[in-house]
Amino acid sequence: MKTQVAIIGAGPSGLLLGQLLSRQGIDNVILERKSGEYVLSRIRAGVLEQGMVDLLREAGVDERMDAEGLPHEGVELAFDNRRVRIDLAALTGGKRVMVYGQTEVTRDLMAAREASGGTTIYEAGDVQPRDLESDRPYVTFEKDGETVRLDCDYVAGCDGYHGVSRRSIPEGRIKAFERVYPFGWLGLLSDTPPVADELIYARHERGFALCSMRSETRSRYYLQVPLDEKVEDWSDERFWEELKRRVPDEVAEALVTGPSLEKSIAPLRSFVVEPMQHGRLFLVGDAAHIVPPTGAKGLNLAASDVNTLYRLLVKVYQEGRTDLIPRYSETCLKRIWKAERFSWWMTSMLHKFSEEEDFGTRMQQAELDYVTGSEAGLTTIAENYVGLPYESLE
After folding, report:
1. Which one of 10, 29, 54, 359 is least enclosed by Cβ atoms within 10 Å?
2. 235: which residues sit within 8 A by CB, 6+ positions away?
3. Is 297 a catalytic residue?
4. Third-level CATH fold of 5-71+96-177+268-353
C-alpha cells in the first residue's frame, strides 16, 4: 500500500486530520487498532473551544453540531455557597464554547470519511512506524493474519497516550515533563436534564465537583475522589448525595437525579513531551500531552495540533515548503504550555489538597476572591476557557 500521510489512530484527532487533508487532495490512510464500534463507545469530553468549532466547520462536519450542539456564552464558578457567572462572550469580544460530545464529533467525522471514500483500517494489529529519519518512512501492521506495509511521506501519531507513536521515538530524543495529582474524578452520566444552563465548577471543603452536560436531556457530573477509590463502592444514591453536599444549596435543590448510564474514575495528570516530532513522525494530541480536565482542554489541544499539522502539510504539498517541517513542534508547544498552565491553575484553585485548613487552602480562597472580583481576573479565565488563538507557523 502507498499513501502520502499515514495516520495512526482513528479517534477525533486522526479523523479530523484525515478529513481536512482529503478536502485538500492530500491522500491519507488511517490505521486503528480497535474496532469502529469500540472507538465510538468511549465516553469523553464535550466542551469545544471556538477554534475547534471553526475547524470542524472548515472540515465540513458542522451540520449536526450546529443543529444539536449547545452554544454557551458563560460558565460558573461556585464556592462559599454562592455562584459567580463568567460572561465569556462579553469578556472575549463575542467568543463562546459549544457543548457537543466527543463521541458525536467522532461519529460525524466517521460518516464524512465513509462518504468521501477515505481509507480507514480498523483492528490493525502490531502497528509499527519505521525508517522515520529517512525520506521514505513506512508503517507495518497486521491485518487478517498478514503483515501489510504502508509506504508514505509522513506519519501522524494520533494514537493517544498509550499508543505506539511516542514509543517509536528513540530514548534520549524526547524529554517528558509530568505532574501527577493525588486525586481523580469520579464521573457519572445520566439521562436527566442538566441542573443549569451552563457548566458549574464548584470548590467545596469536601472536594471539587463539576456539573456538566452532553445535551438538554443528558447530564455529566463529576466528583473529586481519592486515587484509591473504587467505582463499585459508589452507588448512584451515594454519588447524588455527595454531589448535593458540594454544590450551592439552590443547585442541590434543583438537581434532577436518575440511574447512571456509566460511571468511571479518571486519574488527573499534566504531561508534555518535547519535541513533538522525530524525523517524519509528528505527535498529535494525547500522544504528546495530557491535561487535567478542569480546563476542558484535552480534545481542544488535540484540535490545535491538528490545525498546525494540517496547515503545514498543505504548505508542503502545495507550495513545497519543507522548510516549515522543523517548526511543527515549537509552534504547537507555545499553545500547549499555555493550556497546561490554565488547566494546572484551575485544578490547583478548585480542588482539595489537604485534610486540614492550611496555607494552600487560604491561597485558594484568596485566588477565588480575587479573580471573581476583578474584571481582569474574569477576563483571564474567559480568554483561556474559550481558547487562545491558534499559533501561526510563520
Report:
1. 359
2. none
3. yes
4. FAD/NAD(P)-binding domain (3.50.50)
Give the phi and the psi of residue 249 in degrees, each rounded to 5: -55, -45
**How far apart, in whole angstroms, are the C-alpha atoms of residue 290 and residue 165?**
15
User: Which of these is catalytic: 222, 293, 351, 390?
Assistant: 293
Instruction: Tell me whether residue 100 is one of the annotated catalytic residues.
Output: no
pLDDT at 215: 87
pLDDT at position 332 is: 98
Catalytic hit among 95, 204, 278, 297: 297
For residue 153, the model assigns a pLDDT of 98
Catalytic residue among 12, 72, 289, 351: 72
How much is the pLDDT for 110? 96
* Catalytic status, residue 12: no
Question: Does the reported pTM lie above 0.90?
Answer: yes
Q: Which of 201, 222, 317, 390 is catalytic?
A: 201
Residue found under cell 510563520: 394
- Note the pLDDT of residue 355: 84
The domain limits of the chain are 5-71+96-177+268-353
Residues of the chain where predicted confidence (pLDDT) is lower than 50: none
* Per annotation, catalytic residue among 181, 221, 222, 385: 385
